[in-house]
Design goal:
Length: about 350
């Protein structure tokens, strides 16, 4: 559906404001920090820099604009989706959706409006569409055709054939569709807690003529057959899960994988740049993502190993360049951007 002109104007304003925050305000904050920072700058203790950074003249602008523009984003997106109203009936397949009316959502999931999206992605019928439209602005308008997710599939997955791929925390489907497009021989299953998201994911997949199976379930108990998957993946998922729940996620992923199967989780890691890492830690508070800082500080490769996986390690991911990189180092960039990284592991044969 086309957006009304007033909705398009509101979304364009928010997008421009977020680009200004990332491309102008953050580099100025960087310049102020570099002029005042101690030498050497602490590498693995970004929180120790908080008093210095919070005293910089640019910091209140950077901090307020991140949260303020996020709140503006969801207000504009929600208004646009409500104005559009209900969608007309969608195509009858080839995608399918399995909804579990008896599924009890965990408190840690429902207690927070993740991403500052009012009501989260689960609480009402339009929530999936609100998330779908808002996700474009969160990525600064640079993922409108989901090139980011295609790049992950193209560069981070081993070149081989797959029988079954399971995508945990699939949301409205943007991470599952490229799997099916790149590997039509595979059965692709997207799993998510939110009914509005999996229902929208199936509709969008069918509109793309993609036979993807979506399932409302918890990533720690998917209900899928053990040893049935050659790939378990997730995109921007593990930082939304409490650190004490993450071992169960790895246990379930290991259970799902067949011998020789691979795990690929795309998420965030520390960069060793004190200012950028502090901004990422504080992003957890400003964006209502309380589990992000503990996840970044946790040893996820050790969790993977404890679940029976081997060769677990993080490598960097450059969403504007070559995708998966050979080690945990990123190209230098002046603007604010997320420190994307891929957690890799394997199920022993």
């Amino acid at each position: 559906m086309a957006l009304a002109i007033e909705d398009r104007a509101a979304l364009d304003f928010v997008l421009s404001l977020r680009r200004h925050w990332a491309g102008t305000v953050y580099p100025r904050l960087r310049a102020d920090f570099d002029a005042a920072a101690p030498s050497p700058v602490p590498v693995n203790d970004p929180e120790s820099l908080a008093p210095l950074v919070h005293g910089l003249a640019t910091y209140p602008w950077f901090s307020w604009l991140e949260r303020g523009s996020q709140k503006m984003l969801w207000r504009a997106v929600s208004d646009a989706v409500v104005r559009q109203g209900a969608l007309p009936p969608g195509p009858d397949g080839p995608a399918t959706v399995e909804v579990d009316p008896d599924l009890v959502l965990p408190d840690w999931y429902t207690d927070w409006d993740i991403h500052v999206q009012p009501g989260g992605v689960w609480s009402h019928d339009l929530a999936g569409r609100v998330y779908e439209l808002g996700a474009r602005l969160v990525m600064l308008g640079e993922n409108d055709d989901y090139a980011f997710h295609r790049l992950f599939v193209e560069t981070a997955l081993p070149k081989r054939s797959y029988r079954r791929m399971v995508d945990l925390g699939c949301g409205f489907g943007k991470s599952a569709w490229p799997l099916r497009q790149a590997h039509p021989e595979a059965e692709v299953i997207g799993v998510d807690l939110a009914r509005p998201c999996v229902e929208l994911a199936a509709r969008r997949a069918s509109e793309r003529k993609l036979a993807v199976r979506f399932r409302q379930a918890d990533a720690v108990a998917t209900g899928l057959e053990g040893g049935s998957a050659d790939l378990v993946t997730s995109t921007m998922f593990v930082h939304e899960v409490p650190v004490d729940v993450l071992p169960a996620v790895f246990t379930e992923a290991s259970r799902l994988l067949a011998p020789g199967g691979v795990l690929r989780f795309l998420d965030f890691q520390r960069t060793g740049d004190g200012l950028r890492d502090l901004a990422m830690v504080e992003h957890g508070a400003r964006n209502n993502e309380p589990f992000l800082p503990p996840m970044i500080a946790a040893d996820l490769p050790a969790m993977a190993a404890a679940a029976g996986l081997v060769n677990a390690r993080w490598v960097a991911f450059d969403e504007r360049g070559g995708g998966r990189l050979p080690d945990l180092s990123w190209p230098t960039r002046a603007e604010w951007h997320f420190p994307w990284a891929v957690l890799e592991a394997e199920k022993p044969r």
